[in-house]
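Private note to self, pasted from the team thread so I don't lose it. Backbone tokens:
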């Protein structure tokens, strides 16, 4: 059996259902595409640089058995696709929640949880500076949340409550897809650079790496009230 398509199949499977449902009349996710692609480009550029540096520093590596072998700047083409399909799928969940849940009295909901969480991430990062993946995943995610809170008046329709719901809902597909990535493994983590805590085979830090990736695309959406 040819296993070199494994990572590519995971990417395409992640994208399939959100893309097919993008034309639902109530959600009309396709209407956000001009904004979404801009957000994916900006956020993805940051993550690609991060990924390249971490690959070079042996924080993680890729198993040639499960990738096509085509690389750009040292990263498999499937990894580049990852930074498109995952934000797309997560932002789709957010837009579904925004379409089907009423917006009444939501202005301050979510922030009493999200802001302390961001502060906690930054504090935790400063405690574990010796672990490269732990420090940067916690620190970048925490700082992004704090900055968003400071400038939240510039994003009047961003719903912190729906962002948290999106994060929770995406946990199940996250565990499935990332579980495959780390169980085979397709991505091999250097445990000298993380806490060594795992959810099944998934490094604990991946949760906050994913949260930051999700946040960068969601805040790019048009400010629909």
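Design output:
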């Amino acid at each position: 059996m040819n296993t070199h398509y494994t990572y590519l199949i995971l990417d395409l499977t992640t994208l399939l259902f959100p893309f097919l449902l993008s034309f639902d009349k109530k959600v009309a996710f396709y209407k956000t595409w001009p904004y979404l692609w801009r957000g994916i480009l900006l956020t993805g550029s940051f993550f690609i640089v991060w990924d390249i540096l971490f690959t070079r520093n042996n924080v993680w590596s890729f198993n040639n058995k499960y990738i096509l072998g085509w690389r750009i700047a040292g990263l498999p083409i499937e990894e580049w696709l990852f930074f498109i399909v995952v934000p797309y799928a997560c932002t789709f969940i957010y837009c579904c929640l925004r379409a089907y849940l009423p917006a009444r009295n939501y202005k301050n909901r979510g922030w009493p949880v999200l802001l302390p969480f961001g502060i906690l991430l930054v504090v935790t990062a400063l405690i574990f500076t010796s672990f490269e993946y732990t420090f940067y995943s916690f620190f970048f995610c925490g700082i992004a949340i704090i900055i968003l809170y400071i400038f939240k008046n510039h994003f009047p329709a961003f719903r912190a409550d729906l962002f948290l719901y999106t994060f929770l809902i995406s946990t199940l597909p996250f565990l499935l897809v990332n579980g495959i990535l780390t169980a085979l493994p397709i991505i091999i983590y250097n445990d000298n650079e993380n806490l060594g805590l795992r959810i099944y085979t998934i490094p604990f830090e991946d949760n906050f790496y994913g949260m930051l990736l999700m946040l960068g695309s969601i805040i790019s959406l048009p400010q629909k009230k």
